[in-house]
Amino acid sequence: MTIPTIYSKPLADAAGGAAAVESVARSVLPEAMRSEITLGDGAGTDPSNRLSPRAAVKLLRALEQELAIHGHGLFDILPVAGIDDGTLHDRLNAPEDVGRVVGKTGTYGDYGASALIGAIATSDRGIVYFAILNHGIAVPEARRRQDRFVHVLLQRLHSARWNYQPDGRPASHAPRF
What is the pLDDT, as a whole number, of residue 13? Predict the structure, then answer.
């Protein structure tokens, strides 16, 4: 994920450091999947950082379960494609796609890593989760491929718009460290 080091390193440090964050993330996974998460730092810049697509989906589902306990959904904290400001505003924004994907992007470098992890509401299968993690492809091309793949999923899965209304209030801004 591309969160500037200035923000994410202190955030990981506030949670006990990269090792503590890795431990918490691993704790929500089945034992057999725990090695699929490796965090060398809290900023996404360490070459030893690793996350498998299936671990990413498990983490997204764990997040969704935790949010549900408190009466919230994924769209309360993650952007809805084509609607919310941010990295998904200008992606998956064709009229037939708008409002059908909630997710998180991640980018490292111009030719390094690009990720799109999210969920699609469907009318016949419930929520379908996905994770696309690209490495070694130019970021614009990786994003084009990700969007094309998700667009096909939206068409084939009888996707439905999320029951979501954007909150027009200004968002609070993260403190600068």
Answer: 75
